[in-house]
Design goal:
Elements: H1 26-53, H2 71-84, E1 94-104, E2 111-112, H3 116-138, E3 148-159, E4 164-168, H4 175-182, E5 191-198, E6 201-202, H5 203-209, E7 214-217, H6 229-240, H7 253-267, H8 288-301, E8 306-310, H9 318-335, E9 338-342, H10 348-351, E10 356-361, E11 364-369, H11 371-381, H12 391-397, H13 419-428, H14 430-448, H15 451-463, H16 478-495, H17 497-517, H18 526-544, H19 549-555, H20 557-565, H21 571-600, H22 607-634, H23 638-654, H24 671-674, H25 677-690, E12 694-696, E13 702-703, E14 722-723, E15 734-736, H26 737-745, H27 751-777, E16 789-790, H28 795-812, H29 819-827, E17 839-850, E18 853-865, E19 870-875, H30 881-888, E20 896-903, E21 906-907, H31 912-915, E22 916-919, H32 931-942, H33 949-962, H34 978-990, E23 996-1000, H35 1008-1023, E24 1027-1031, H36 1037-1041, E25 1045-1050, E26 1054-1060, H37 1066-1073, H38 1085-1092, H39 1106-1111, H40 1114-1129, H41 1146-1162, H42 1165-1185, H43 1193-1204, H44 1209-1232, H45 1239-1269, H46 1277-1305, H47 1312-1325, H48 1341-1346, H49 1348-1361, E27 1374-1376, H50 1384-1395, E28 1398-1399, E29 1408-1411, H51 1417-1420, ...
Parallel strand pairs: 2-16, 4-9, 4-10, 7-8, 8-9, 19-24, 19-25, 22-23, 23-24
Antiparallel strand pairs: 1-3, 1-5, 5-6, 10-11, 12-15, 13-14, 17-18, 17-20, 20-21, 25-26, 27-29, 28-29
Helix pairs in contact: 1-9, 2-9, 3-42, 6-8, 6-16, 7-8, 16-21, 17-21, 17-47, 18-22, 18-25, 19-22, 21-22, 21-27, 22-23, 22-25, 22-27, 23-42, 25-26, 25-27, 32-33, 32-34, 32-41, 41-45, 42-44, 42-45, 43-49, 44-46, 44-47, 45-46, 45-52, 46-49, 46-52, 49-52
Length: 1460
């Protein structure tokens, strides 16, 4: 084997001992433990002194007091104590034989994105599709088989307890799939064949009884961002702490939890973050590297014994990554765990800690054996020895056609190159023979000697708490799980203060608005109808407020999937815990809400009345909360849930018994009333109120009565007058509330407890049960990103893709001898010369506000970047690398930056952000764009307009080629892998041809080969004149030499070094050597210098702080002199150059932003078609309730209700549009920081994109409203119907503009929906329908004028009812007897003349029949509505939309909610 200088050796320069072919022997393990023990102990002892010398990072919590931590002693003593106490061990060896994994898809098979057009067509074809599905179920032969492809070819292997296996391979080779198959996560694949056994137990039994003992740690970190690190770990421990039989005697559960948590935090060096939020891209919390360590700690808290780590060192600096793997080595050896790991960019020191290495190539096993012999094996096959490369990079490179090189005299002809040939070569090798031999022996041993298996089963059983079934895979019983989850949910809600304060405030304001609108209702006939209105408004507002539960159920799915795979809890426990944890918050909030409304509106003031009212509203709230949560759990995404929920909402409102009494409902629809939980709550509250009160009949309820100027009729109810109130008895002025409810609504007050309460309680438990069953047996988890989705090719992209394929084939067809020149040609594709500018920074200090003052994160940082050079920015996790980059790139918007930043010797101008590019660590892009579209968008808007579109397109194709995104050019961004998305982020920034390029950890998440390709590509850009500054993690010795300069930071943002690196890093090594830190020849200098300054767990070299060394060095003085030199020599040409913030003019920006937005919506059929479906459904369903209305008084009332439903349109639009706006704003914030386009363009583009779909929705709603209901029978005729269409279009526009304004003004998706009930309720309450204008308190009439719904109803009602003849039906007449000897006309004529209406039998002398209205105008004139004002009302409504739109633009400009 060729002797290869490694990347990672131990600090003192001696190589980490290599494991033998099977396992680490005792002596080697001892040495390893001693090294780590010493390192950990020294490091923890130094922690306190270090903290006094350096400022803390804002992202850290307060440091905890630490004692010296001895990992080896701790684990050894725990293990020995466990053995002495007779606790069984868990030793689980893993064997896999002919493991074969198949996925859905195939070569040449592409899954294409669905569009709105396809969904609309699919809706009409649904009956045919349903029939076909039924036929396929009956006749299975008809069922089409999905195309399948092999991800992992059949392969075998074994890993014994106490062994670690490193899985290597290029992206797409199946490393993650192998780990998931080993971890028994089979749901993402079409089929997993072969025999996988764990200590002899098969995969089915393992999944059924021991699910939590085999765990998989995914690459992405998914956590609840508003919990602290300690709370996250406490939760996992609370569910996995063993019972008394599984703990040491005398050790309490609390002591056990504290010991394990402390161990994990110290081992991973994150004790100081215990009280800091975990955070995510939106919630400020721990740093990315620390979040990764929280994921590792959470998984290890499960105490599983087969561990699969998928790229778990991503985001960790090399020193921390090595410390973590060393800790895993110690734990694996002492605890007998079985560990699998895929690692990208693993250094030599990490590599040497593993017992086995498995190399995959396109799903085929091409090596499985000892790490120490892997390099020699591949060299023996004929691959060139590359001594400067770390072994993991070398092994992966041998499977990469673009990277591998052949030994002298060898070529593709006589070296196995294809995956098939490499697999065949391995099968013939002694390693395969040894492995199969060992596998056979181990399997036989497991069959004969069941000691390990029995010990494992005994240990798992001992861990279980009392009462947990032996067959259950869970450690804790169901009630214990519910308790732990309820505590976690309670903590989450309590810590989300903003949401808590907002919900309580809005609820109280809503109550005050309703209470004030119906203030102090009188016990007269006038207060009877309005009592029903206030009860209905209070109940409905409370119940529909729970609509916001649907999206919340979907947001937590990735975390639910991860934690149920860890077997922490049953999914059903989440549903119950959510309800229980919510009750303390909602009970108090709704009690305050009810208290205000009940007593302000003067409902029956008695304790029994109030508490019955409160009970019914709260149980109604819980029922509807369960109802919406059920839909949230049942549906795959928010849009389909929204679609389904709106199927029920209009019916729940319409059939609650308020708008249409039960007796008047259509016979074929009245059954809806009986399955409606809102109806039982409403009826119960109504009965509760009316059983306690009576009404005085007066005023407008007496017929006939005196019109103004007439005093013919008695003021009190006389013998020849009638009270029009339901349940009135002739001659009696007092109407009993019970009678009113019985006659008017058909309600029997004795049903209050015996029917309504029992049924509403039943609904509450029913919806709780549906949640439990659905989440347990039909869970919807977000699918993994294993399926790539493409956009169909058009003629242009087809030609360009063909050119990309040709180029790829041309390069791959070149022989090995031409590899180098071919590579040069490939890289040389970027022949563009960049005109970079020198960038200098002096005395940079950065302070951020913290409770009690400020904290310094950067201190006196100096440096420069010249055109044609690459500068690396390095330091330990939390040293302030990203902070420094953010400050230099002008991306910080909180805190105070002090110092001097100069570009080309001049202060930074308006155009700095757009002339520089910043590839951020978080890959935020427009998800529905393709890779090509995303890069073109950047090129079109960031390159100057004088560069032609053809040139920009050509440049983008070059970038696609260079970044090796040929096969993904038409792939949608949201379906890309982590690694492909990282390349795209860099491509999008490079598409702007910047003068200065910033990159934040561009190689994080990439494998060694991809990282090397990327850095080499950056080198090519630098050689062409680009100035580059980038932070970098885990650089190999080859990678670090590619850079010209290094800026090294230590904790507290202190500079340790800024200067050259040199070939073989000799400049850097000399600097450290002069200060007694000698880097041995076989150690990676990048690792060494981090160790030397004490970045990881290792102690720093020397007794002085390295920042003091730097400040006294001649190199420091040279940097200052060079900065002065750059400032003097830079261009002083200050000719009148017009500097603009954006590269392109306004209309150019708008064109491309609108174009992208239109594409996004067309490719978001769930969003757009859901809105269309909901409009059509609500309109149709309401029309069915009011089918072909006639000319009666009741029909007149139903026309008003039919029109009133148009006011629901903004609520529909807003509920859907706000999350979309806030989601789009994430992308805008990232793009706005680069000054791609202005916030005004963003806001206008969003509105224009929504317009075509809003028009379509309005037309569909109008068609299904106007014609089925029989509108247009008044004087306005057909023209009036088209006028209604105009108003509905204006209402759509109002809904869109208001929704966008709320989205723009809200910080998050959780906050935005909280404003909707308040706004919708206020606007609809004061528009004059539920609270008629004449009865409205004078001080509220300004709100009546201000409500846009007033204009909507004014215009629509006046046009519909103007000139409409009214003819009462027989049961609609008001009947009374005239005085003896008088005709009906003689007695009531003055009354009819004064108040309108007509007498059906004017000449009769008894049983006079009076109809309230003769023509529709008599209905709306008293309500302050005028037909002649219809056009004024229409344009006032339009003006409201214009105002909202203007407010949205202003909010987009000033409210970003992006603090960094």
């Amino acid at each position: 084997m060729t002797d290869t200088p490694g990347d990672d050796r131990t600090l003192r320069g001696d190589a980490t001992p290599l494991p033998d072919s099977h396992h680490v022997d005792v002596a080697q393990a001892e040495a390893q433990f001693n090294e780590l023990q010493r390192v950990l102990s020294i490091r923890s002892q130094q922690a306190e002194s270090e903290r006094t010398q350096s400022a803390q990072d804002l992202e850290k919590g307060d440091h905890l007091e630490e004692e010296a931590f001895d990992l080896r002693a701790y684990l050894s003593s725990s293990s020995q104590a466990a053995e002495q106490a007779g606790l069984a061990h868990k030793h689980v060896g893993v064997t896999w034989e002919n493991l074969h994994v198949v996925g859905v898809g195939g070569i040449g098979h592409k899954i294409y994105v669905h569009t709105f057009g396809q969904d609309a067509l699919g809706f009409w074809l649904y009956p045919f599709r349903l029939a076909r599905r039924v036929a396929e179920t009956v006749v299975p032969v008809l069922r089409p088989k999905p195309p399948l492809f092999t991800i992992l070819e059949p392969q075998s292997g074994l890993l014994k307890p106490g062994e670690m296996c490193l899985v290597l391979g290029c992206p797409g080779s199946g490393c993650t799939t192998l780990l998931k198959a080993i971890a028994n996560q089979r749901q993402d694949y079409a089929a997993i064949e072969g025999d996988v056994r764990y200590a002899g137990i098969d995969a089915q039994d393992m999944a059924k009884y021991y699910k939590g003992e085999v765990v998989y740690n995914e690459e992405d970190d998914r956590h609840i961002s508003t919990l602290t690190v300690a709370q996250t770990l406490n939760f996992a421990l609370s569910l996995k702490t063993p019972g008394p039989k599984g703990r040491l005697p005398g050790l309490s559960r609390k002591e056990f939890d504290e010991a394990v948590r402390g161990t994990l935090l110290k081992m991973l060096n994150i004790s100081h973050t215990a009280n800091t939020y975990v955070g995510d891209e939106f919630v400020r919390g721990v740093s990315g590297g620390e979040r990764k360590r929280v994921s590792i700690a959470e998984m290890m808290a499960t105490r599983a014994h087969v561990l699969c780590f998928d790229n778990s060192t991503r985001g960790l600096d090399a020193s921390t990554a090595l410390d973590f793997i060393k800790a895993m080595r110690v734990m694996t050896d002492i605890l007998g765990q079985t560990t699998f790991a895929t690692l990208y960019q693993a250094g030599e020191g990490i590599y040497e800690l593993f017992d086995k290495v498995l190399v995959l190539d396109k799903g085929r096993q091409v090596y499985f054996g000892p790490p120490s012999e892997a390099r020699a094996y591949f060299e023996g096959l004929g691959f060139k020895s590359l001594p400067r490369q770390s072994t993991p990079d070398y092994l992966t490179g041998c499977t990469d056609p673009n990277e591998r090189q052949f030994a002298p005299g060898r070529s593709e002809e006589d070296v196995p190159c294809t995956p098939e040939a490499l697999e065949e070569a391995f099968k013939r090798s002694r390693f395969a023979g040894d492995m199969l031999d060992e596998l056979t022996k181990y399997k036989h041993k497991m069959e004969v000697d069941k000691a390990d298996q029995e010990a494992f089963r005994t240990a798992v059983l001992a861990d279980k708490k009392k009462g947990v079934s032996k067959k259950s895979p869970y450690t804790l019983g169901f009630t214990g799980q519910v308790r732990s989850l309820a505590i976690r949910q309670f903590q989450m809600r309590l810590q989300d203060r903003f949401q808590l304060i907002t919900s309580y405030s809005l609820s109280t304001i809503l109550a005050l608005v309703i209470g004030a609108a119906y203030y102090n209702l009188e016990l007269t006939s006038q207060g009877a109808f309005t009592r029903g209105s206030v009860i209905f408004a209070a109940l409905l507002t409370c119940c529909l407020d729970t609509f916001g539960e649907m999206p919340v159920q979907m947001l937590g799915r990735p975390i639910l999937k991860k934690q149920t795979n860890y077997a922490l809890y049953r999914p059903a426990a989440v549903a119950i815990a959510n309800t229980l944890s919510d009750i303390p918050f909602s009970a108090v909030r709704i009690f305050i809400y009810n208290l205000i409304i009940y007593f302000m509106s003067n409902l029956s003031r008695s304790a029994g009345g109030f508490f019955t009212y409160h009970l019914f509203i709260y149980v109604g709230f819980l029922s509807m909360q369960g109802f919406f949560r059920t839909f949230g759990i049942m549906c795959t995404n928010f849009d389909s849930a929204f679609r389904l929920a709106t199927f029920f909402i209009p019916n729940m409102i319409q059939y609650a018994g308020y708008m249409i009494p039960v007796s008047q409902m259509k016979r074929w629809l009245f059954w809806i009333y009986y399955i409606n939980p809102v109806a039982y709550a409403f009826v119960g509250i109504l009965e509760n109120e009316f059983m306690r009160i009576g009404f005085t009949c007066d005023g407008n309820s007496i017929v006939p009565r005196n019109p103004p100027g007439v005093d013919k009729y008695p003021v009190e109810l006389g013998p020849n007058q009638i009270c029009t109130l339901f349940g009135a008895i002739p001659g009696q002025q007092i109407v009993s509330g019970s009678n009113y409810a019985l006659v008017g609504y058909g309600l029997n007050v004795s049903d209050l407890w015996r029917r309504n309460f029992i049924v509403i309680i039943g609904f509450m438990f029913l919806f709780q049960l549906t949640q439990v069953l659905l989440i347990e047996y039909f869970p919807h988890f977000d699918a993994g990103s294993s399926v790539t989705i493409f956009a169909p090719e058009d003629s242009d992209t087809e030609k360009r893709n063909a050119a990309l394929r040709e180029g790829k084939e041309r390069r791959s067809s070149k022989g090995a001898s031409e590899k180098a020149s071919a590579k040069d040609e490939e890289d040389g594709g970027v022949t563009t010369k960049f005109y970079g500018k020198p960038f200098t920074w002096e005395q940079i200090n950065y302070h951020v506000p913290v409770p009690g003052g400020t904290r310094r994160l950067l201190h006196d940082v100096y440096g420069y970047v010249k055109p044609g050079t690459m500068t690396a920015l390095m330091g330990a996790s939390g040293a302030g690398k990203t902070t420094c980059l953010d400050v230099l790139a002008q991306r910080k918007n909180i805190g105070v930056v002090a110092g001097t930043l100069l570009l080309d010797g001049k202060p930074l101008g308006l155009d700095f952000a757009r002339n520089t590019a910043y590839a951020e660590q978080m890959d935020v892009h427009e998800g529905t764009a393709t890779v090509r579209e995303a890069m073109r968008f950047s090129a079109y808007l960031r390159q100057p307009p004088e560069v032609s579109k053809e040139e920009k397109d050509k440049y983008v194709e070059e970038m696609i080629e260079v970044l090796e995104l040929h096969d993904l050019a038409d792939a949608l961004v949201f379906s890309l892998s982590v690694e492909a998305r990282k390349r795209l982020t860099i491509g999008v920034e490079l598409a702007s041809r910047p003068s200065l390029l910033f990159l934040d950890e561009p190689t994080s998440g990439l494998d060694g080969q991809s990282a090397w390709n990327l850095v080499r590509f950056l080198r090519k850009l630098a050689d062409n004149g680009q100035a580059i500054l980038c932070t970098i993690h885990q650089p190999s010795s080859l990678l670090i030499q590619t850079f010209d300069k290094l800026l090294l930071l230590e904790r507290g943002g202190e500079t340790v070094y800024f200067g050259g690196i040199g070939p073989d890093c000799h400049i850097l090594r000399d600097y450290f050597a002069q200060r007694d830190a000698h880097c041995p020849a076989n150690v990676n200098p990048a690792e060494f210098m981090l160790d030397a300054i004490g970045a990881g767990l290792t102690p720093r070299i020397g007794d002085r702080d390295w920042k003091d060394h730097w400040l006294e060095s001649k190199e420091y003085r040279e940097v200052l002199a060079e900065i002065d030199n750059i400032k003097r020599s830079t261009s002083t040409d200050t000719a009148n150059q017009k500097v603009s913030m954006y590269a392109t003019p306004f209309w150019h920006q708008l064109r491309y932003v609108v174009q992208r937005n239109n594409t996004k919506l067309w490719r978001s059929p769930d969003y757009v078609f859901s809105r269309l479906f909901v409009h059509a459904f609500i309109s149709l369903w309401i029309s069915l309730s009011f089918l072909q209305l006639g000319h009666g008084v009741r029909d007149l009332q139903y026309r008003v209700f039919g029109i009133f439903w148009a006011t629901i349109l903004p609520a529909i639009v807003m509920g859907q549009l706000e999350p979309m706006w806030i989601f789009n704003r994430r992308t805008f914030i990232r793009e706005a920081s680069s000054r791609i386009y202005s916030p005004y363009v963003f806001a206008i583009g969003q509105l224009i994109g929504e317009m075509p779909y809003s028009l379509l929705c309005a037309v569909v709603y109008w068609l299904l409203m106007v014609f089925p209901m029989g509108f247009g029978q008044g004087s306005a005729g057909v023209g009036g119907e088209f006028f209604q269409l105009l108003i509905i279009i204006f209402m759509e526009l109002f809904g869109v503009s208001l929704g966008q304004f709320i989205g723009a003004a809200s910080p998050s998706m959780q906050i935005a929906p909280l404003f909707n009930p308040f706004l919708i309720l206020t606007l609809s309450t004061f528009c004059g329908v539920t609270l008629p204008y004449p009865t409205m308190a004078t001080y509220w009439r300004w709100l009546y004028e201000l409500s846009p719904y007033t204009r909507t109803l004014g215009a629509m009602l006046s046009v519909e009812l103007h000139g409409l003849e009214i003819q009462c039906k027989s049961d609609e007449f008001i009947r009374f007897n005239p005085p003896s000897g008088q005709t009906c006309a003689a007695w009531a004529d003055e009354f009819v003349q004064g108040f309108g209406g007509y007498l059906a039998n004017p000449d009769a002398t008894s049983d006079c029949q009076y109809c309230q209205y003769a023509v529709g105008d008599q209905f709306f004139l008293p309500l302050n509505i005028r037909y002649e004002n219809r056009w004024r009302d229409a344009w006032v409504l339009f003006a409201f939309s214009v105002f909202n739109f203007a407010a949205t633009i202003i909010a987009s400009r000033y409210l970003r909610y992006a603090k960094r």
